[in-house]
Amino acid sequence: MAQVSEEREDRVDATGAHPAAAPGTPEPGDAGTPATPEFPGTAGASATSETPHAAGTPVVPETPGTGEAARLSAAGTAAAETPAASRTDEAGGASAETAAASAKGAAAETSAAAETGASDTPAPPEAVKKASKAGRNLPAAIGVALLLGAAIIVSLLTVRYLFIGIIAVAIAVGTFEFAGVLRRVAGIRVAVIPVIVGGQAMIWLAWPFGREGALTAFVLTVLACLLWRLPGGAKGYLRDISASTFAAAYLPLFAAFAAMLVPPADGVGRVLTFLIGVVASDTGGYIAGVLGGRHPMAPAISPKKTWEGFAGSVIGGVVAGALTLSLLLDGHVWQGVIFGVAIVLTATLGDLVESLIKRDLGVKDMGTLLPGHGGIMDRLDSLLPSAVVSWLLLSAFVPV
């Protein structure tokens, strides 16, 4: 009987309910079996029946809430309280989520209000004022270009050799600008004195002696640069001599070919053909690029130069070349077309080369002498290589 009671008690502990009695097992209260008082929901009676009692010892009934009944009651209470706690936690989580959502909404409204207030606040004049699409001060650039053009026209129509003086002054200033930028930005020391003096010799000797005088002066200038740099020591010697030689070739030697356009009897026409071709190329490219530039030509070198602008340069250069060479120099229209295309190519090459030099040095302009343009070097970029090609083609098309 004790074994049966243990099995029943195990079932009570596992399920919390009293299983049905096994067949043949006397239930409490059966005939001949003393009944042990048992309170509902407790297993105390089963536990009591396992303990042997002496005869005549009364069995003390357990009161509810004691012993195994107390443990079962506590387990039931915990099970009953667990859903409530979970509901409380869920309610707390929902409240926290609601509070977070409310805070987020309030923050969004505050941000929107701040943005609205910022947009309602008038921007300062500097922010409202848009930069020119051309990337420069256009009125100043036009004014400076007109003044320079007027000075050139006056020199050509009065004493045309004054144009050589204008070239000499521009090259001297450009050399000083170029040497200064190299020294400040890259630490390169150009032999300024030999390059400026030798450059003046190239330009002025090109007047009576032509290309022989210019080339002779160039060679002597390079020799003078080699000697001038000797006291500076070995460190950076090759770098400085290379920069000095480049400056002597790029500025005064190229400019000497423009000076060689002046001496012939039709020198004024030759100079005007050269200048008008370059100006027409630059102006056509500028207008076409500003109005319809969409496809960059060389974005890594000059992001603002476009193929549409190049097409405008070709149109302007070809029209100008055909008109000037046929009207001013009695040449043929087809010669003017070839001349115009060549000028466009060399002017564009000059722009790209100077843009690459400035990008390599990390500067926007070579100087600040000319408002709206930058420095003298920034205006000579397309003129210098075009002067060489102009002299070569005009000497072939219209011999002296």
TrEMBL record:
Top-level taxonomic group: Bacteria
Catalytic reaction(s) noted: a 1,2-diacyl-sn-glycero-3-phosphate + CTP + H(+) = a CDP-1,2-diacyl-sn-glycerol + diphosphate
Listed transmembrane segments: 138-156, 162-181, 188-207, 213-231, 243-262, 268-288, 309-328, 334-357
Subcellular location: Cell membrane
Name this polypeptide is given: Phosphatidate cytidylyltransferase
Region described as Disordered: 1-130
Topology in membrane: Multi-pass membrane protein
Alphabetized GO MF terms: phosphatidate cytidylyltransferase activity
EC numbers: 2.7.7.41
Composition-biased stretches (Basic and acidic residues): 1-13
Cross-referenced InterPro entries: PC_trans
Similarity section: Belongs to the CDS family.
Skewed-composition ranges (Low complexity): 14-36, 67-119
Keywords, sorted A to Z: Cell membrane, Lipid biosynthesis, Lipid metabolism, Membrane, Nucleotidyltransferase, Phospholipid biosynthesis, Phospholipid metabolism, Transferase, Transmembrane, Transmembrane helix
Principal cellular location given in the protein's record: membrane
Gene Ontology terms: biological process: CDP-diacylglycerol biosynthetic process
